[in-house]
Structure formats: C-alpha cells, structure tokens
Amino acid sequence: MVSLCLNSLPLPSSSYPKKLTETCSSFSNGCIGTALKPIVVNGNPPTFVSAPGRRIVAVGDLHGDLDQARYALEMAGVLSSNGEDLWTGGDAVLIQLGDVLDRGDEEIAILSLLRSLDIQAKANGGAVFQVNGNHETMNVEGDFRYVESGAFDECADFLEYMNDYEYDWDEAFVGWCGLSRRWKDERKISRNNWGPWNLVKRQKGVIARSVLLRPGGPLACELAQHAVALKVNDWIFCHGGLLPHHVAYGIERMNMEVSQWMRGVIEEDSSPHMPFIATKGYDSVVWNRLYSRDISDLNDYQINQINAILQETLQAVGAKAMVVGHTPQYSGANCEYNCSIWRIDVGMSSGVLNSRPEVLEIRDDKARVITSKRDKFSELQIVDYL
C-alpha cells in the first residue's frame, strides 16, 4: 500500500553540518602537474563556495527533458557522449539553476543524473551544485498544476523500483537515471492494456508524487540539500534574482529556512513554515524577473533603476556578477548591465521552447556562452561577452 511508503521511506542522507573540502586529483582536467587549492564549501545547505582555479559551467532550466539535459551537459564538457553518464569535467564546477521539475516527464532521472555526476566530480576534485527554482518550491508546496502525466507515472515507477532496494534512498536514487528509460518503455507497452483503468494508474501517480515531494518526503529532502542562492568565488547564482532585501535578510539564513521547510522541520505547536521571502511573491528569490526583462521594452529611467538595484545587490553580497534562469531568453543566453547579469534560461526543454541548449562557462573570471552549431553538439560555437 502507498500509505506504507509514506511512513517507511527513510530520508536521504545529508552531509550536515555542511562544511567540506575536496582536493584536486593530480590527473583531473586542468590539474595535471599542479595542485589546485581545495574546494571549500560553507553553509547548510551550501551557500558560499571557494573554488580556486576551477572552470565553472552553469546550466539553466531543464524541465524534465533528460535528452536535452544530456546534450547541454555534453556541450559543457562534463558528461560523456557514450551514453554511460560519466563525468568528464575533471576538476570543473557545474551549477544547475533550478526548474528541473514540471513540463517534462523525466524529472527524477535528471536529478539522479546530477547526483551521480556530483559523486564522480568530487572524486576528481570538482563538484556539482544545484539551485532550487520556483517549480521545485511549488511541488513541495503541493502545487502540481504544471506536472506532465508522464511525470506522475515516473513517480509511481520510482516508488515501485525502490522496493528492490529495500528503500535504500542513496543507492536507489543514484541508480535511477540508468534504469528509468527502461521503466518508461515498459510502461508504454503496458499502458495499451490498461484501457479504462488508466485513471486508477494516474491516481497512483498523484499519490506517489505527494509521498515523494511533501515537506519531509524523500525527494523533498533531496531538494532540501540545495540552496536558493549560491555564491561561487565572485559570482552569485540563483533562479530568479537576488535583491538588496534578500541580502539584508541573510543568504545563508534563507537557504537554511527553505531547507528546513522542505525537510518538514517544525517548531512546537506549528506546521512547517514556508519561507516567503525566498519562495513566494513576485520579488522572491525564485520568482523575481526584474533582471530578465527585455531591455528594449524599458525606458532609460527604468534601465537606470534596475541597474542601480542590481549594483546595490552585488555590492552587498560581494559579487562581480549574477547568473539567473527562470525567464526564457528567446534570443539565447545573454548578459546586460555591463554583463553584471547573465540570463541563461533558453527554454531548452521540449515542454517549453525546445530550443538549442546553451550553457555558460566561466574561466579565469571571464564568461562566455557555449552553444551548438547546426544542431551538432560536437561542433561548438563560442560567443564571448567579456
């Protein structure tokens, strides 16, 4: 019974308190013959990261499209192209900017892939970080309005698959990406025999998603290990956009409060408290679109006002630039305000714009966009902005 899953699933193991170092392998990419300083992570979840000398790659919204996610990661040079899902980034740092959930039907598979790559990256002196977006917070809140039917099916399949692992979350979660496509194909075959019983199957998927993503659920606890705002070296990464009052409130405090809410941590005589400053409202960290507005639609006064807010935020947090997703950029990834803001959501998911994947690379504190040429991902066209 699904009700048994609700009570029997253990929470994902966490690495709290979150302060760790990763040393560089002498054989990792860009590290041969040298010894880079270790990556140092502070915060719970990770909030401030020092990654000296690392190549940083940022990937925008993925929205449940595993194929496009793989293409983007291959372009970024961090994922093998042989289908074996191997980390090829050496000591690089990969940052995914949220909205893995909704609009596609292989969400858990993408989260599984990113976790697997993080394990492999750390073994090579690199790391993978994820930032939660508005669609992650919506699902933990129980808002399933943008969930595809196949995503409900994936949740049901995943719970059934976990039976084989006696609910060992870590082993099951990391292994899901390699097996999810087979489960999906088998589901398509069996669906032809369901007929009028498809409604029952759909209800099972809705219940499974609720079990996984309710505050304190195993998948919600997985998401709870990710920040809503992450500073790596001199760059700040978030889904929607950081504002001065967010910095004044405290980035680490926001990250901790969102994590506690997702993990279902409650105070006495209360229910899990949703951190509104980070997750609700047009000016929250995951919903803010101020910096992503088309500058051609703005007058000079509006441009100056937005730039002033952006510069105040960057100065307060001690960053040189901010990288955001959330708002699809029809012209491709780009920067504005003297490249103080980078907008890298290109709507690559087939559930959004199905556009060509693009990723942002930061090397030696300079950024450039990597995009595909003629849809052949082995040929890279580089566009420099700094």
Structure description:
The chain is α/β, with parallel strands linked by helices and 386 residues long. It is built from twelve helices and 14 strands. It has helices spanning 2-8, 66-75, 107-123, 134-141, 149-162, 169-191, 198-213, 218-223, 244-249, 251-262, 276-279, 300-317, and strands spanning 19-22, 39-42, 48-50, 56-59, 93-96, 127-130, 229-232, 235-238, 321-324, 334-336, 341-343, 358-363, 366-373, 376-384. The strands form two sheets. An eight-stranded mixed beta sheet has the order 1-2-3-7-8-9-11-10. Strands 6-5-4-12-13-14 form a six-stranded mixed beta sheet. Strand 2 and strand 3 form a beta hairpin. The protein is globular, with a radius of gyration of 20 Å.
Give, in order, the helices and strands.
HEEEEHEHEHHHHHEEHHHHEEEEEE
- Main sheet properties: 8 strands, mixed
On the 0-100 scale, what is the average pLDDT? Answer: 87
Assembly type: single chain
Number of β-strand runs? 14
The amount of helix comes to 25-40%
Rg on CA atoms, Å = 20 Å
- Taking pLDDT < 50 over at least 5 consecutive residues as the criterion, the unreliable ranges are 1-11, 13-33, 374-386
Count of DSSP H/I helices: 12
What's the shape? globular
Find the structural class using helix and strand composition: alpha/beta
Strand order of the largest sheet: 1-2-3-7-8-9-11-10
Distance between the termini: 56 Å
